[in-house]
Amino acid sequence: MPYAGLSIPDSALSGQAMTLLLLTDALHKMDGAGIGLHPSLMDIQAQLVRRRRQWFSCADETPLGWYAALVNSFPAALLAARCADIPAAARQAWVASPYHAQLGRDTVRLMPEGDFPWNEADSAWLCDLLNPLLLEEGMSLHAVGAALLLACITPLDAAPLPFAAISGGLLPNRHPEGPDGGRLMRLLAEIQMSLYGITHSTGQPTRDGQPDISGLWLWGASALPAELPADLPSVATQNPFLRALEHEHGAEIIISEVERLSEVLPSAVLPKTVVLAGAGHAVCLHKSLLPSFVKDWQAKSSATEAELFTSINRMLDAS
Predict the structure, then answer these.
(1) Residue 143 forms beta bridges with which residues?
(2) List of residues 6+ apart from 10 with CB closer than 8 A
(3) Considering 6, 134, 174, 298, which has the largest number of Cβ atoms within 10 A of its Cβ?
(4) For residue 258, which of 284, 233, 277 has the smallest C-alpha distance?
(5) Contact status, residue 35 vs residue 283, Cβ threshold 8 Å
(6) CA torsion sign, 95 to 96 to 100 to 103?
(7) Are 213 and 100 in contact (CB under 8 A)?
(8) What is the rounded CA–CA span in Å between residue 149 and residue 80?
(9) Where are the alpha helices (DSSP H) in 36-119?
(10) If phi over 0 gives left and psi between -120 and 50 gives alpha, with beta otherwise, what is residue 244?
(11) How far is it, in rounded angstroms, from Cα 158 to Cα 186?
(12) Hey, which residues does 218 pair with through a beta bridge?
């Protein structure tokens, strides 16, 4: 939806001035070559193009993945620290992201995470459905708010793609790297088949007309028990998985998908720094006395991902 008629929910910023807005899917690869702006941001493009730019090369991440990278932690560790019922014998945790898929002739395309509605009732229902299957594998699925966490007694040695790499794109048709890559993909295929049987027989009672869940993707693994960094910054978001971290009011940073931006940003006033991410890049937009009027979004000479995180954390420390 276009960026218009914005309102602020109770979970957002409580009137405090924002330091940073980070949009995780604001940039996308255009047909042919180059990078384009998400269509939903066209209404504020005039504000964005006037700002001074600094480009970075970085991996695509979900809001939870971005937050974990900023605090030098693992996505699953952040959720595991807030999950009281992980079995004591569990030695590994994974983020389990649900998705809705559309079947093509030779491909499976996933709905973008920002478009996929998901809530706590959905997570609780899915845990009840899948845990009888998972317990046979020495695993268990846990709801952390609306987020989902898979705990394993025996760690899986596999390196699947981050969920951001496939959200809105194609489901991989090959095993991830690692000795247990095949086992992981077989497990995900079993989960897909279980969900297919349920949705085509009784339906999903918690979805209430929303897109069905087609499967789960495991990513962001962490060893257990997990250790968290101190002084985690508070963040405003409407992403169901990042909201599970129970951030406080008065946050100075927003991390959001473009699709959920209208739910979390008050009015149309942008903070002094905006980071647009996606397509393997991020561009940091700063207010400047000498505005830029470059209208395209082609990446220039790029700094590193580590430099981006250092810059963001320096801004947060100074706020």
Answers:
(1) 148
(2) none
(3) 134
(4) 277
(5) no
(6) positive
(7) yes
(8) 7
(9) 45-49, 63-70, 75-80
(10) alpha
(11) 12
(12) 96
- Across 228-290, the runs of DSSP E, i.e. the strands, are 235-236, 253-256, 273-278, 281-286
Q: What span, in angstroms and rounded, lies between the C-alpha atoms of 25 and 38?
A: 7
Beta strands in the chain (DSSP E): 20-23, 27-29, 35-37, 52-57, 92-99, 101-103, 108-110, 139-144, 147-152, 215-223, 235-236, 253-256, 273-278, 281-286
φ/ψ of residue 119, rounded to 5: -145, 180
Q: How many Cβ atoms are within 10 Å of 292's Cβ, its own excluded?
A: 14
Enter the tokens of residue 269: 């006033």
Task: Provide Rg for the chain, Cα atoms.
Answer: 20
Phi, psi for residue 83 in degrees, rounded to 5: -115, 115
SS3 26: coil
The model carries a pTM of: 0.90
As a whole number of angstroms, the distance between CA 314 and CA 67 comes to: 15
- The total number of residues shown for the chain amounts to 319
- The alpha carbon of 300 is separated from its chain's Cα centroid by a whole number of angstroms, namely 26
CA atoms within 13 A of residue 301's CA, in its CB half-sphere: 0
Report residue 91 as tokens.
Answer: 């030695």
Alpha helices in the chain (DSSP H): 45-49, 63-70, 75-80, 120-135, 181-199, 240-243, 261-264, 305-318
CA distances from 74 to 1, 67, 140, 203, 221 (A): 31, 9, 19, 34, 7
* Distance of alpha carbon 13 from alpha carbon 50, whole angstroms: 25
State how far Cα 155 lies from the chain centre: 23
Predicted confidence (pLDDT) per residue in 220-241, tens digit: 999 999 888 877 888 999 999 9
Q: Hey, how many other C-beta atoms are within 10 angstroms of the C-beta on 88?
A: 7
